[in-house]
Design goal:
CATH class of one domain: Alpha Beta
Largest sheet: 8 strands, mixed
GO molecular function: hydrolase activity
InterPro entries: Acyl_Trfase/lysoPLipase, PNPLA_dom
Protein name: Patatin
CATH superfamily of one domain: Cytosolic phospholipase A2 catalytic domain
Function: Lipolytic acyl hydrolase (LAH).
Structural class: alpha/beta
Distance between the termini: 80 Å
EC number: 3.1.1.-
Strand content: 5-15%
Length: 464
């Protein structure tokens, strides 16, 4: 009996010791896992050696282990060369340059793509899958991504730049610079201008996925004009001329969908969403019909174009007018989106996300020769052109986790040059790869019945 008791005690002790060792291993594994997560999130740590020594613990008995799941026909093992990346272009509202900085950035980007690809007819729309733009940025997106009669974009980037410079101030939002362009463009004139450019073309006539925001006063919520929604849902297709009028409106304008099912009173996209980058990313990640293989930010390539920050100080005194506060709020919102998006990219923020923005205030009268000062008084558009050029020559600014922002060695122009190489590389990969493309855009088919949209965008907030 005593021997049996000893044997039982020994077995129990051995079992307890084994359980303790297992618990210690599990605790150690848990600590290691949280350490890896912490390092990857906080510091972008991605060294495979760090995880190679982790203990392998099988807590499922072999007899009850679940069978291996059958490989999905879209699993990553069928993508030996990678899945490719979705390319996103995002353009801010007017800012201090009323869209000129972004327009110049796009002209430089397109010229670089033409040179590097060896194709003089290359267009920005050829190298992006999604274009989002607010305010003046929405005008640029519409000009560059709406299909013309020849099946190509209506405007080249250089033509879009000339359009913006010629019409500077005509599509000013409440965030337009007070010291440069105070003129408010009347809705009737805006309608005539956009109608002349776009005619009867609608959201369905865009070449790629296009997202343009406004603020719907009727629902008290942002509304996102979306090509995907226009193709799939009743009441969501609008004339491009009216879309442009809505996203740049400095006061309420009425518009309705082409089928008359949706009506709204809209004000400018710069009020609702001065930086639409986050909305564009959310649209891609949730639209599995058009972007079926996009799992996270690592599958995105994004360039976000700013339009310069406002000069809120006038003669060392702060202008406390309501319009000034609207400008400050717009700049602050755009910066917050940039910071959040940069942090969301984590370890990929240096390779997959680029932000082009004016760093501080440039183009003041102290920076411009006296001969140009007289010209500026007569031609504020010329001043915007000078300011935008100076901003492009500035050092690029990147967001740093928990540390605000830092200047990098590259200028904004050099960053655009580098980014052109990135999107061109993706374009060449798609031509030679046997892998399914990362983007499957819907095509306009008037005869097909409308379906419920799979795209999760802000338009759902406005009953669309």
């Amino acid at each position: 009996m005593a021997a049996a008791a000893v044997s039982t005690t020994t077995t129990t002790a051995s079992s307890m010791l084994h359980q303790l060792e297992c618990n210690m291993d599990v605790d150690k594994l848990t600590c290691e896992i949280f350490s890896i997560l912490e390092n990857k999130f906080l510091f972008g740590y991605d060294d495979p050696k760090f995880v190679s020594h982790l203990p392998k613990i099988n807590t499922t008995p072999p007899a009850t282990a679940a069978p291996a799941a059958a490989a999905s026909p879209l699993s990553t093992k069928h993508f030996p060369g990678g899945r490719g990346k979705v390319r996103i272009l995002s353009i801010d509202a007017g800012g201090s340059t009323d869209g000129v900085l972004a327009a110049k950035s796009l002209a430089h980007l397109e010229a670089t793509l033409c040179r590097k690809s060896g194709n003089p007819n290359a267009r920005v729309a050829d190298f992006f899958d999604v274009a989002a733009g607010a305010g003046a940025g929405g005008i640029l997106a519409a000009l560059l991504f709406t299909r013309g009669k020849d099946g190509r974009p209506l405007f080249t980037a250089d033509e879009a730049l000339k359009f913006v410079l010629h019409n500077a101030g005509k599509f000013s939002s409440p965030s337009a610079p007070a010291g440069i362009l105070r003129r408010v463009f009347r809705p009737a004139k805006a309608e005539k201008l956009y109608g002349k450019v776009f005619g009867e073309l609608t959201l369905k006539d865009t070449l790629k996925a296009v997202l343009i925001p406004c603020y719907d006063l009727g629902t008290g919520a942002p509304f996102l004009f979306s090509r995907a929604d226009a193709l799939e849902m009743d009441g969501c297709d609008f004339k491009m001329a009216e879309v442009c009028g809505a996203t740049t409106a400095s006061r309420a304008v009425g518009l309705r969908s082409t089928d008359g099912r949706k009506k709204m009173a809209a004000v400018g996209g710069g009020v609702a969403m001065s930086n639409p980058t986050a909305a564009a990313i959310t649209h891609v990640l949730n639209n599995k019909q058009e972007f079926p293989f996009c799992k996270g930010v690592e599958d995105l390539i994004v360039v976000s174009l700013g339009n310069g920050e406002m000069d809120c100080a006038v003669g060392n005194h702060w202008n406390s007018s309501p319009v000034e506060y609207v400008r400050i709020a717009g700049d602050g919102a755009a910066d917050m989106v940039d910071q959040a998006v940069s942090m969301a990219f984590g370890q990929w923020r240096g390779s997959n996300y680029v932000r082009i923005q004016g760093n501080g205030i440039v183009g003041k009268r102290s920076h411009i020769s006296s001969s140009k000062r007289d010209d500026d008084r007569k031609a504020p558009k010329r001043k915007l052109d000078i300011i935008a050029d100076q901003m492009l020559e500035q050092k690029n600014v990147e967001s740093v986790l928990f540390q605000g922002k830092k200047l990098v060695e590259s200028t904004n122009l050099e960053k655009l040059e580098w980014f052109a190489g990135v999107v061109l590389k993706e374009q060449e990969w798609r031509k030679t790869s046997s892998v399914l493309p990362p983007v499957i855009l819907k095509q306009s088919s008037p005869s097909s019945p409308p379906r419920s949209s799979s795209a999760t965008t802000l338009s759902t907030l406005s009953s669309c």
